[in-house]
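In the current project phase, we have settled on a layout for protein records. A sample record is reproduced below.
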Amino acid sequence: MKKRFALLLVLALIGSLSACAGDAASADASAASDTAADGAEASPEAGAADAPESYKIALYGPMTGNNAQYGETYRAVCELLVEQVNDAGGINGVPVELEIFDDKNDPREALNVANLIVSDPDIVAAIGSQTSSPSLAAAPVFAEAGLPMLSPQASHTELTNAGETIFSLCTFSTFEGSTVVEMMLEDGYANLAVIYANDDYGVNIVEQWTSDVEAAGATVVAAETYVSGQTTDFTPLLSKIKAAGADAIYIEPSYSDAAMILAQMKQLDMDIACYGSSMLYTQAFLDIAMENAEGLQVCNYINPDSTDPTYLAISEAYEAATGNLTDVYVTNVYDCFMLICDAIAAVGTDGAAMSEWIAGVQDWPGASGPITFDETRHPIRQLYAFEVQDGQFVYVGG
């Protein structure tokens, strides 16, 4: 049962891509629904007289504000999956419902949202948030309530310490920072700079990045920080980096800030190698950064050569529905949503039982590859390297 429901949904997604554009569901989706109804293991709630009218899953994240592009990706994927799951017969015959909350990428808003979610007895699990700071603020509330919280992207090393119902579908931010150091050093750069947001994610990742640079015998010639959502003039910080003699820079921010930084680097004639965080692997970044992003290198958790049916199904369905590039925000929120659905199908809606089931999956068919969680409730994953060439992300290794 650990793999069956997600694999059935893959069949439904493959068989109903035209439905993403508004057509009727295909016969393949109906067949998958029949198979699910006949073959799924009954959960403790299946067939019970008091079975719920629906299983309600909460999604919270930045639906407005500077990071809204990420929140809207989460919304689009989850709404697509709600449609697909329900078209395939729901979970043991019970439909899935999505309730969406906007935390504006603000820890205070996330705390308020978390309290709203746990106060609703019909919500069985939560997906969110997009960055570490709001996720860290919300996690203790969910842990205390015993409600599973799966974050698609929060990567702070302390996140899952809040409790055993807290998961991340992303590796530690420190792992990414170390990978970027390797990329920079392998390309022959030794005088390195970094510009990063002064938040939990930025501080956490840069601490490890700096440690790895120094351990390798290279030099951090400048480390400049700013307040995301408030700083728009980066030229004073960039001028310091230029004066320090950096030959490569790690641009850690999200896509909107990074696009401004790259444009202002061009204005300052800063001809140095640029490396970015995985948050930049989005169509929105390419659209606003345009030619300023040429040559930028980033890492990401998606293998573009993957022939995995789960990845291909959600990628094709998402791109048909939205016209946007499939990125790690698509794949990770898919994994969050479907892990919750599979857990409900297997053990019902008890938070502790769901969390135990999720923590114990082995090679579960995730959209970025098979998922097995480590002892910190993070997945074991590989990073891949890309370079922006002619306005597109081009795979260069990994």
